[in-house]
Amino acid sequence: MRLYPAIDLKDGKCVRLVQGDYNAVTVFEDTPSEMAKRWEKEGGSYIHLVDLDGAKEGRSINEAAIKSIIEAVDIPVELGGGIRTLSQIEEKLALGVDRIILGSAAVRDKALVKEAINRFGSDKIVVGVDAKEGRVAIEGWLEVTDISAVDFCLALKKLGVKTIIYTDIAKDGMMQGPNVEETKRLVEATGLRIVASGGVATLADLQAVEEAGVEGAIIGKALYLGAIDLKEAVGLFEKQQPEGGKYNAQ
């Protein structure tokens, strides 16, 4: 299982929200690239980066911070938040982002998802499915739709999507454990590579999502509060490949 240390960007700073609430912000680092270097030093093999301002505004906002992170580390970076057109995808990949996370755009425009995969490949395009009580949320979690998360993932699979980043909004930032049951249901119902996000607070939580059959797990607030030591977690849940010092999902 691959672990993804998370960096959320707001106003050019590294922050964490509680349940996606833009008014419940804690700033952890004024220079996000320094945080990225820390996670790389502690064994992180892939950084999960979210432009919170972009998610809310529908366009990339924190490009300077994103560029500084990419330049500061040698590990790959995935990016989500405000990326809603093919040209934006192309720009971010050219900037050095390893793969793009489509969120609200995937809900509103499935043709975009299909075209993006056709043009850039399924390894470069993943979809972030954010849900509350099993229903898909969009616009930076500000709007909850009537779309079932499972049904949405199955529709995405038909478009060629192979990887889903699943976030349970009710769990995100709460340090109360992930929604293992819903995550496992997605894994079993879709057969897709599911990356679990939201609520991971302990090593036991990581064990639980690993047993649910996920491809990976995103760790956010637990790292920033010191509840999980990234180096220890990497040692327990990731297997280092002999070539290139990279890690691979189990």
UniProtKB/TrEMBL annotation:
Q: Does the keyword field hold Cell inner membrane?
A: no
- Is Iron set as a keyword in this record? no
List the EC numbers from the record: 5.3.1.16
Q: Which domain of life is it from?
A: Bacteria
Q: Give the UniProt subcellular location, in the record's own words.
A: Cytoplasm
Q: Which Pfam families match?
A: His_biosynth (PF00977)
| Record's protein name | 1-(5-phosphoribosyl)-5-[(5-phosphoribosylamino)methylideneamino] imidazole-4-carboxamide isomerase
State the species of origin.
Holtiella tumoricola
